[in-house]
Specification:
Keywords: Membrane, Transmembrane, Transmembrane helix. This protein is mostly helical and 574 residues long. It is built from 26 helices and 6 strands. Helix 3 runs parallel beside helix 15, helix 15 runs antiparallel to helix 16 and helix 22 packs across helix 23.
Length: 574
C-alpha cells in the first residue's frame, strides 16, 4: 500500500467505498456493451446483411447441422407414439358394466313383469333403448347370462388389456360384432349384445411417454449425421446476403468465429472500460471532487448511463440513427453540473463509438447527442424549461446530419426522410427521457437542483400555504429573511436560490404552535408565555427547530433545506 501511495497519491481514496461504485459502473457497462460487441465475427449476425465477402481459407468437412436436424425432424414425425391402456378408463367401464347388470338383476328379481315407468327410468339412466332394457328384463335366465358373459369376455379380451384409440373404435367394434355372430346367440340376443358393445366401448389408449421417447431415441441413435465438404476458395458469404445459421455454422467450423474470438473481444472491451473508469475518476478528482463524495450522485450517474444504454438496445431495433444518448448529459447537467456532464460525455463517446461499431453517420450523431447539450447550456445547470429547447436543437442537428449523409451516399428520398425522422425523433426522445429521469432521481434521492428549488418556492406548496394561513406573521417574516438571504448569497457567490428556499422554510416548525410566537399573536399585550413557566416557554421556542425538521422530513424537502432548518439558530443562546 505504501508503494501505491508513492506511485498514486490518490490511490487510497479510489480504493475506499467509492471503489464499489466504480466497480459496479464498469461491470454494468461491460454487461450492456458486451451484449452488442460480442457477436459472431463483428458485423456477422444472423438476420443481418453481410458487409463483405468471406472465402473459405482451406478444405474442411463439416456436419451440416441444419440438414441433419431437418432429417431428424422428418424421421421423428414418422415415428408413431407408443400407446398403453388407460387404467382410469378401464376402471370406469368396469364400474359402469357392473352397475348396469346389478341394476338389471335387481329389477328382474323384484317382479316378473317390469312396470313401463321402471323400464323408461332405467333406459334413460343408462342411455340404452327401452326395447333393449325390456328384453334384458324379460329374457330367460340362460339367454340373459349368455349375453352378459359374452359381453365381459369380449371386453376382457379386446378392451381391458389392449389400448383402443379413437381411430380404432370402428375396427374393434367390427371385430367384437364378428365374435358375437360366432357365438350363435338367438337373433334378439345377438342384437342386444351388439347394442351393449356399442354402449360401453370407448377409447382407452393413452400415450406412453417413456416408451415413446425410448423408441425415438433408439431410432435417432442409429441416424448418421449429414456431412458436406467446404472447398478452399468457396465463397461462404457474399456481400449483401442475409446471414443465416448455415453461414455461421460454416464460419465456426473454419475457426472464423467462435469462443476464442469472443474471448479476445471481451478482453479488449474490459481493458477499454477499465481505462475509461480510471480516467473518469482522475477527471472527477481534478475538476469535480464534490461528486466523488456524494454516493447518491454516483448512483444517479450509474442509473442514468446504464438506463440510456438499455433504452438504446430497444431503439436500435427501430433504426440505427434513432439515438437517445443526449439524455445522459442533460441528466448530469441538471443534477451534477457542467464539469461532470462534460467529462462523462467526453469519455463515453469513444467507448460507445467503438462498442456499438458505428459508421460515420452514427459517430457524428453520437457526438452531437453527448456534447451539444453541454455546450448549448454552458456552465449553468439545466432547468426543465431548457429541456425542450435542447431537444429541439438536437432534433434539428441530427435530422440535418441524416439528410446530408443520405445525399452524400446517393440514397433514395425515402431513406433520407427516414434518417431525418429517426434522427430528429431521437433528439426529442432524449429530452423527454431526461425530463422524466430528472424528476424521478430528484424525488427518489432527495437531490437539490434548481428545478427542485423553484418548485419549493411556489406559494401553493402545502407547507407555504399552511404557513400563510395558520402563521401569517411567520410567513411575512420568512419572506423578509428570504430577500435578505438571497441578496447576501449573490454578493458572496453562494447559491442564492438555495438561500431563498431555506429562508422560506426555516421556521415551518412554528406551525405546530403558531400562537406561541409573537409575530402570530393578534395582540402583543396578551402574550401566552406570561401564563407559562420560563422552562416551558423555552422548550416551546427551541422546539420549533425540531418540529420543523420533522415536517421537512415528512414532506421530503431536500437535505440542504433540512440542514438550514436544523442550524438556523446556530449553537449560541437563543
Amino acid at each position: 500500500m505504501s508503494a501505491l501511495r508513492r506511485i498514486w497519491p490518490g490511490g487510497n481514496a479510489f480504493l475506499s467505498s467509492r471503489f464499489s461504485s466504480f466497480l459496479a459502473y464498469g461491470s454494468l457497462l461491460f454487461a450492456l456493451l458486451g451484449g452488442m460487441l460480442l457477436v459472431p465475427e463483428g458485423d456477422i449476425r444472423e438476420g443481418q446483411l453481410a458487409t463483405r465477402d468471406i472465402v473459405a481459407p482451406e478444405n474442411v468437412e463439416i456436419v451440416d447441422v441444419l440438414a441433419t436436424e431437418k432429417r431428424r425432424g422428418e424421421i421423428l414425425a414418422g415415428i408413431p407414439p407408443v400407446y398403453r391402456v388407460d387404467e382410469g378408463v378401464v376402471h370406469q367401464v368396469k364400474e359402469e358394466m357392473e352397475g348396469f347388470f346389478v341394476g338389471l338383476e335387481g329389477i328382474r328379481a323384484a317382479a316378473l313383469s317390469p312396470l313401463p315407468e321402471v323400464v323408461e327410468s332405467f333406459s334413460r339412466k343408462w342411455n340404452v333403448t327401452e326395447n333393449t332394457v325390456r328384453w334384458l328384463l324379460e329374457a330367460p335366465k340362460e339367454a340373459y347370462e349368455a349375453v352378459r358373459g359374452l359381453l365381459y369376455d369380449l371386453f376382457a379380451a379386446r378392451f381391458f388389456t389392449q389400448p383402443v384409440r379413437r381411430e380404432d373404435l370402428a375396427r374393434v367394434l367390427l371385430e367384437m360384432n364378428t365374435e358375437i355372430e360366432k357365438a350363435e346367440l338367438p337373433g334378439e340376443a345377438m342384437w342386444v349384445a351388439g347394442i351393449l358393445v356399442t354402449r360401453f366401448l370407448r377409447p382407452n389408449a393413452a400415450i406412453d411417454e417413456v416408451k415413446t421417447q425410448e423408441k425415438r431415441a433408439q431410432i435417432l441413435a442409429s441416424l448418421e449425421p449429414v456431412r458436406r465438404v467446404i472447398r478452399r476458395g468457396e465463397v461462404l458469404l457474399r456481400r449483401g446476403d442475409i446471414v443465416t445459421q448455415e453461414h455461421l455454422q460454416a464460419l465456426e467450423a473454419l475457426g472464423m468465429v467462435g469462443e476464442n474470438r469472443r474471448f479476445f473481444k471481451a478482453l479488449s472491451l474490459g481493458i477499454f472500460i477499465v481505462g475509461v473508469v480510471v480516467l473518469e475518476y482522475l477527471y472527477l478528482r481534478r475538476f469535480a471532487l464534490f461528486f466523488l463524495g456524494d454516493n447518491a450522485l454516483l448512483f444517479v450517474r450509474l442509473m442514468a448511463v446504464c438506463g440510456v444504454l438499455v433504452l438504446h438496445l430497444l431503439t436500435l431495433r427501430v433504426s440505427p440513427v434513432f439515438l437517445v444518448a443526449g439524455a445522459i448529459p442533460l441528466i448530469l447537467l441538471t443534477l451534477a453540473g457542467w464539469e461532470v456532464a462534460l467529462g462523462e460525455s467526453l469519455l463515453l463517446f469513444p467507448l460507445l463509438f467503438w462498442a456499438w461499431r458505428m459508421d460515420l453517420l452514427g459517430g457524428l450523431l453520437l457526438f452531437v447527442h453527448l456534447l451539444s447539450p453541454v455546450f448549448l447550456l454552458g456552465k449553468k445547470r439545466a432547468e426543465r424549461r431548457h429541456f425542450t429547447r435542447v431537444g429541439e436543437m438536437l432534433a434539428l442537428f441530427c435530422g440535418v446530419l441524416g439528410i446530408l449523409f443520405a445525399l452524400q451516399e446517393g440514397l433514395s428520398f425515402w431513406k433520407a426522410l427516414a434518417f431525418f425522422v429517426y434522427g430528429g425523433g431521437g433528439g426529442i426522445l432524449a429530452s423527454v427521457v431526461a425530463l422524466g429521469s430528472v424528476s424521478l432521481f430528484e424525488h427518489t434521492f432527495h437531490l437539490t437542483t434548481e428545478v427542485r428549488l423553484m418548485e419549493l418556492l411556489d406559494p401553493n406548496h402545502p407547507l407555504l400555504k399552511r404557513l400563510m394561513l395558520e402563521a401569517p406573521g411567520t410567513y411575512s417574516h420568512s419572506l423578509i429573511v428570504a430577500n435578505l438571504a438571497e441578496v447576501a448569497a449573490q454578493e458572496i457567490g453562494a447559491n442564492a436560490l438555495l438561500a431563498r428556499a431555506g429562508a422560506y422554510y426555516h421556521d415551518i416548525g412554528k406551525l405546530r404552535r403558531p400562537q406561541f410566537f409573537i409575530e402570530n399573536q393578534a395582540s402583543p399585550n396578551r402574550n401566552v408565555h406570561e401564563r407559562l413557566s420560563p422552562y416551558l416557554s423555552v422548550r416551546v421556542i427551541i422546539g420549533h427547530v425540531r418540529d420543523g425538521l420533522e415536517m421537512a422530513r415528512k414532506f421530503r424537502l431536500p437535505r440542504e433545506v433540512q440542514g438550514i432548518i436544523q442550524s438556523h439558530h446556530g449553537r449560541s443562546v437563543v
